[in-house]
Design a protein that fits this description.
The chain is α/β, with parallel strands linked by helices. It has a single domain, classed as Phosphoglycerate mutase-like (Rossmann fold, 3-Layer(aba) Sandwich), CATH 3.40.50. It is 31% helix and 18% strand. The chain has a six-stranded mixed sheet, sandwiched between helices. The protein is globular and about 45 Å long. It starts with a strand and ends in an 11-residue tail after the last strand.
Length: 176
């Protein structure tokens, strides 16, 4: 059984309207949420052994803050195709993950990340979590899916959504 973790970048800043979207940095709220979510990942033992990250500034910064809280995680591989609005690009990328990876983490953007998670989640997915995730996949949210087939054979509906966490869900422990 493999696991796929889908992490949306933390809250980004909109303080400079002249800045290109690709170059937007994290807002202070995002700088607090990313390490908080990383500590939750570590607490639950969901340490990835393969990491794929969008090269956009806010996703790189999210990964820097997350990886600083996790011990023994591999170097991230930065993929330009994660910075798209196409769930199909994400599917193809995950299919290329090494088969030796038992738990892969992808740090990306909406709407592609939300659409990708919803398309992967098939029979056996937690229906309440599916409804919540489809309603809103907020910044710094994490979807955890179980995958029974090899990465190369991953297809829509072939995974089970078993966890969906947001900073707000864990707000009693999250610094505001």
């Amino acid at each position: 059984m493999k696991e796929l973790l889908l992490l949306r970048h933390a809250k980004s800043s909109w303080d400079d309207p002249q800045l290109d979207d690709f170059d937007r940095h994290l807002a202070e709220r995002g700088r607090r949420a990313a390490p908080f979510m990383a500590r939750e990942i570590a607490r639950r033992g969901w340490l990835p052994d393969h990491v794929m990250v969008s090269p956009a500034l806010r996703t790189r910064q999210t990964w820097e803050l997350v990886s600083a809280e996790l011990s023994g995680v591999p170097e991230a591989v930065f993929h330009p195709q994660i910075y798209t609005d196409l769930a199909d690009d994400l599917l193809q990328l995950v299919r290329e993950a090494p088969e030796s990876a038992a738990r892969a983490l992808l740090v990306g953007h909406n709407p592609a990340l939300e659409e990708f998670a919803a398309r992967l989640a098939g029979t056996g997915s937690d229906k309440k979590l599916m409804k919540r995730m489809r309603h809103k996949f907020p910044t710094a949210a994490l979807a955890r899916l179980l995958v029974e087939e090899p990465w190369r054979d991953l297809s829509p509906g072939a995974a089970r959504l078993v966890d969906f966490l947001t900073p707000k869900d864990l707000s009693s422990r999250c610094p505001s």
